[in-house]
Amino acid sequence: MTVSKLFIAAAAMSFTATTFAAGSHSGGHGGDIGEPGHADDVSRTIQVEMHDNYYEPEAIEVARGETVRFVIENKGRLVHEFNIGTPDMHEAHRDEMKMMVEHGVIQGGKLNEDMMDMGNGHTMKHDDPNSVLLEPGQKKEIIWTFSTKTNMEFACNIPGHYQSGMYGDVNFDSAADTQARAD
Known about the structure:
Immunoglobulin-like, 5-stranded mixed beta sheet, alpha+beta, single chain
């Protein structure tokens, strides 16, 4: 096995171990943070701007059971992520994001999507329903149902971004759930 093939194999195994440590991808990196929502259930839309290195708004308020459409736009000069999760989920996900930088998938303001396929069925594709990864100027949507009231935040887990303040709190409305809102 050549050195480069050995390196790719080791990276793939490391990525796979990181992915499993982060949890199931069915809900987006594991944990009980809710689930992908349906457009018919959206109660409101929240516009989120990503800047170098902060979000606007800095926090959001939701109700248990609420389905929100997030329209996320990267207004910064660097690639940024909007990822909904618990603090532990974000911590586990940072290893995956570090690997994406180390392998040249993320290069400052450029996202090299063609480099996400590592071969042999291993991928660094960033396609979880609770997360988007955007180059400067890009805009995407996430529809998310907050079915479980838990300690949650949204964050950019690209190395150094979270640490420089690129995260925000998801606060649960004191009204117990969307039924109370509807009445």
